[in-house]
Amino acid sequence: MKILIGFSYYKYPVDVYETLTKWVERLRSAGFDIDLFPLTIDPPGPPFWWKQLDKSWKLGDRKLLSMYEKLALEVEKYDVFLNLNGINLHPNFVATLPTVNIYACFDDPEASERLSKPVAASYDLCLVGNIAEIETYKSWGVKKAEFWPLGFMATDFDPNLTEEQILYGEREEEITLLCEKKYFPERIKRLDFFANNFPNGNYFGPGWNNGFLSEKERIPLYLKTKIGPNFHNSTGPINLRTYSLPACGVMQVCDNKSHLGKIFELDKEVVGFDTVAEAVEKVKYYLAHDDERRKIAAAGWKRSLKDYNEISVFGLVEKYSEDLVKSKVKSKISPHSKLINQRIFSIPNKISYIIRNKISPERHL
Q: What is the mean pLDDT of residues 138-145?
């Protein structure tokens, strides 16, 4: 199965192209046939939100359509197209692509109205990073929606860490929380309440007094940490901490308890909470009951390494799209396929015509 991955190309806080290139190299070594394609206009840069995307499409924006022309030519060599960040493709254009088209998004529900909701139903399959929002996707008329965990990358843990070290080794830091503390007043209030109860914890990220923690310091700090609290703005869990904390042998205490229980086994692999007061209570309990903390941390580590490593996670793309690819191949075998596949009728040629003549794509694609 040949898969083309469209991605959002930005350089802050990390160079995403560099990160994804290394990720793709590791996945290829594991047997996946995949390539990258930047979906950002004038990369690196920000994506279009829906209103801007729809306007640019209707006006026949030359830069947008030029990117579409290149993509339409490129996908002809692939079975599956995966929009990894769910950006910049108008649903009317997606409908013209001959591949099995997959929409992935890890920004729901905060960005749903301006990112995923207007376009998701135009794809054959939606891979939803937030397990709490799968039914929301179905309510939008999406044909097929599946949970696709973020998981953790090979750079997000220490492969030399052992179960024995988690169960019997020393960890000098009680609490580490790496996240942003800004934008949402209720979030700031919750984080301040938690931090005030554990003033000796390690708190880094936008909005914290300590500022940023460098990437090279992140994993070493996790490996010294006993408990990692995890907070979301709304529904979830939907962040990298959900998977990287246990992968580093940290006992995770995470909100969105009911949905967390669909990803890990509660009180055996992770600990869940519904209120910040409950989080404080549970962290105090496990700091005082270290043997219990160690057992949960070790079980979470095993589960994360088994099910949420980057190879297992990407394998779900092939698993969920396998039947769709078979159906797509069958549908191409028809009396009209020869005519449809002639270059004069191809989507790239049509886009070239639209660009040259400066006309709207609405009536020509």
A: 97
